Amino acid sequence: MAGRKKSPIMPAVSSITREKGMSVSASGYLRIGATDVDAWMDFGTGVLGLMDAGREDAAGARFLRMDDHPFRLMIEPAEADGLIATGLEFPDEVAFLRTCDAVAEAGHTVAPGSAEETARRCVTAFATTTDPSGNTLELYWGRTLDYRPLISPQGVPGFVTTYQQTGDLGFGHLVLPAADFDATTAFYTQIIGMGITDILYPPGMAGAKIHFMHANNPRQHSLALFNSQHPLGVVHIMVEVETMDEVGRAMDRARSAGSHFLATLGRHVNDNMCSVYLLAPGGIAVEYGYDGLLIDWENHVTTVSIEGDLWGHEYSFPGVND
Questions:
Q1: Are 194 and 24 in contact (CB under 8 A)?
Q2: Where is the VOC domain positioned along the sequence (predicted)?
Q3: Cβ neighbourhood burial of 203 (10 Å; 0-12, 13-18, 19+)
Q4: Angle 37-46/244-257 helices, nearest 10 degrees?
Q5: Which run of H or E residues covers position 305?
Q6: What CATH number does residue 283 fall under?
Q7: Residue 99: what are its φ and ψ, rounded to 5°?
Q8: Domain housing 177
Q9: Which of 23, 32, 35, 264 is deepest in the core (most CB within 10 A)?
Q10: pLDDT per position in the chain (322 positions), as tens?
Q11: How many domains would you assign to the chain?
């Protein structure tokens, strides 16, 4: 994108944002319900190029790896397709407990995870809560890493989940529905500890509004809120690869697999991501992208966008554009 470059990342970004009240480190993992777990795994490994973690699970879940985390996506047998929960990572026990206390003091139920469920998530501790729009969150700290090398079945050399001295960027990002938009925005910014990066008024969508929010890492947004409802509990999720060629190779694999292209190749204005949108089995939209913007939060000022794309991203909704 002409005139826009990745902001220089300073090693002190982490301490700077914490001093300003930033708490949550990253969007760490997702729990996804699937009526056909095998189909989701075939899509995850065969199209996205993620690695089957090969973990045993008493409840029949399957797990997808992107890096040295034991999993980033947990695919669970369910009666309906959709997002079950979002795992938000905190840097240490102090930040985790402080945030859990703040959530409870604000009137939200906080349920500590059992020892069995904690081990299942490969974390030191976690607690479950819901935001004002009903999205389920799992707040956690102390992930147990898996240092086996990532071996993508499609030869993807790596996914963008870390950056130099700043550490974990999370699995990517997700956009959650937020019918109670103002209260939900306040929940994430005032309690969870995120900051608003950009406010988008999508063109051609009267009354629509999206708040893009960053965590304590340089990724332009780790989570966003859309002021509406969604039947699957998530508007889309995003995973990022290291080169444009890997996006192109994924597009070829998607065509061969018969995956539905929700949006053609395009580049977003606010986060610079060059990406394509695919529908996973069950309907969850997955953005597969490259070249996402990284930002030095010490020098960032919240922006307002009225255009979503610099070019491309022509959408094709099943049942609408057919």
A1: yes
A2: 26-142, 170-291
A3: exposed
A4: 140
A5: strand 303-305
A6: 3.10.180.10
A7: -70, -40
A8: 13-312
A9: 32
A10: 333 334 333 333 333 333 345 689 999 999 999 999 999 999 999 999 999 999 999 999 999 999 999 999 999 999 999 999 999 999 999 999 999 999 999 999 999 999 999 999 999 999 999 999 999 999 999 999 998 999 999 999 999 999 876 689 999 999 999 999 999 999 999 999 999 999 999 999 999 999 999 999 999 999 999 999 999 999 999 999 999 999 999 999 999 999 999 999 999 999 999 999 999 999 999 999 999 999 999 999 999 999 999 999 999 998 665 5
A11: 1
Give the C-alpha separation, 167 to 60, whole Å: 32
Residue where the block lists tokens 């290291």 = 242
8 in a structural domain = no
Cα–Cα distance measured from residue 64 to residue 288, given in angstroms and rounded to the nearest whole number:
15
Query: What's the whole-model pTM score?
Result: 0.92
